[in-house]
Amino acid sequence: MAEPAAVVLLSGGLDSATTLAIARAEGFAVHALSFRYGQRHAVELEAAEAVARQLGAAAHRVVDIDLRAFGGSALTADLPVPKDRPEAERTAGIPITYVPARNTIFLAYALGWAEVLGASDLYLGVNAVDYSGYPDCRPAFIAAFEHLANLATRSATEGGRPLRVHAPLLALTKGEIIARGLALGVDFGVTRSCYDPDSAGRACGRCDSCLLRLKGFAEVGRTDPAPYAG
Predict the structure, then answer these.
(1) For 69, which DSSP code?
(2) Which of 62, 114, 164, 228 is deepest in the core (most CB within 10 A)?
(3) Contacts of residue 18, Cβ cutoff 8 Å, sequence gap at least 6
(4) What is the pTM for the complete model shown?
(5) pLDDT, tens digit (0-9, with 9 covering 90-100), for 86-117
(6) What CATH number does the domain located at 5-219 have?
(7) What b/e readout covers 207-218, taking b as 16+ CB neighbours within 10 angstroms?
């Protein structure tokens, strides 16, 4: 019997790579979906391609959209990426690296592809434990989008095929995510998480994402295999 299809949002970072590995382990033929959305850290798309290949995705699509048209984020506009912030500051409020409506937009594309594929399952690697500043990484958002998906699609309203949105990392710490990925054979050396990499694609080691990633590897007693500047 053929494996059922699932659509997995794949940024090329640590969390989405682990999520893809979990979907594979749960018996899905993974259709990975990435976006070229005007992000300053476009090196992540090369990482996403490597992750999809390494973890045996059935397909990998990269969709072009341009969120620079709106800006409003240090990832899509000429705004400085915060560096060297203490943990208390990183976890307080919504940071300037939040991209307005990004996960809503990405999930909408994933939902469209899932309908075409006849897939009932969407996966995304959001997390609300270590870093809950983003409102579209919280349990209430995941539940609301799943409800929307089952109101807005022909497959759910007429086809008798309800859609499920999986966020398997939601309640895990970064260290727990890394441990889960290692157990599933994820090569974290090909993943990229930095918000402000250099021209060679090396991580800065100082932005919020880098600091959280390094903390996670320290928690599991490992050295991050991804390249860092300096």
Answers:
(1) G
(2) 114
(3) 125, 169, 177, 178, 180, 181, 184, 186
(4) 0.96
(5) 888 887 888 999 999 999 999 999 999 999 99
(6) 3.40.50.620
(7) bbbbbbbbebbe
